[in-house]
Design goal:
The protein is built from 10 helices and no strands. It is mostly helical. Helix 6 packs antiparallel against helix 10 and helix 8 crosses helix 9. The longest helix is centred in the first third of the chain and has 24 residues. The N and C termini lie far apart (53 Å).
């Protein structure tokens, strides 16, 4: 990477970090591209060289969240533990991170933006690291016979993702006034118990 490319990467990083901090502080809809440019002391040309819109900057939040799962949650999962126990721990750590570090307003904004019909949703991107983590765990659980027979790993991941979206959406509707950690424990306790092979 030459000096020009390094400067470009540094500008992109500065715009991303500043914009996301502004979204957290003031709300996505209350921040304009011009304000991001002014705050970062860059230009419109520099901004649009890296991003087509402020939504694309906001989409970097998804990558940060998924990277957190890869870097900080997956290493805490003990491969000697049953898959169902690892899934329960992953979900607990995931929701704790979202509640404490992301917050309900950013979560609400994520859902709001992903419902737009003007662009494809990152939620549906099959290459998301989140899906890869869950699929690997669930395939191991299917192979080990931990789940009820008749379910594929993809079907189990679909159930988990739908439940995940539901609990996050409900938390956002309640404006963070309920405990996401407590809500997820109840919901996923029922879901995982329902997927568990009965003789286990």
């Amino acid at each position: 990477m030459d000096a020009r490319q390094k400067r470009g990467q540094e500008t992109k990083r500065k715009i991303t970090e500043t914009a996301i901090a502004m979204f957290h502080e003031r709300g996505f809809n209350n921040v304009t591209v011009d304000e991001i440019i002014a705050k970062t002391n860059t230009s419109k040309g520099a901004f649009y060289n890296h991003f087509t819109s402020k939504h694309e900057v906001f989409a970097e939040q998804f990558k940060e969240i998924d990277q957190f799962y890869v870097d900080h949650i997956v290493p805490r999962l003990d491969a000697k533990q049953p898959v169902l126990d690892r899934l329960a721990l992953f979900l607990d750590l995931q929701m704790t991170y979202i509640q404490n570090d992301i917050g309900w307003d950013v979560t609400r904004t994520i859902y709001e933006q992903e419902l737009s019909t003007e662009r494809s949703s990152y939620f549906l991107n099959p290459d998301r690291p989140l899906y890869g983590i869950l699929l690997e765990l669930c395939q191991e659980g299917v192979d080990n016979g931990e789940f009820k027979p008749g379910y594929t790993a993809h079907e189990i991941v679909t159930v988990l993702i739908h439940a995940m979206r539901g609990v996050l959406y409900n938390w956002s509707l309640n404006r963070g006034r309920i405990s996401l950690k407590d809500e997820q424990r109840v919901l996923f306790g029922v879901v995982l118990e329902g997927l568990k092979r009965s003789e286990l």
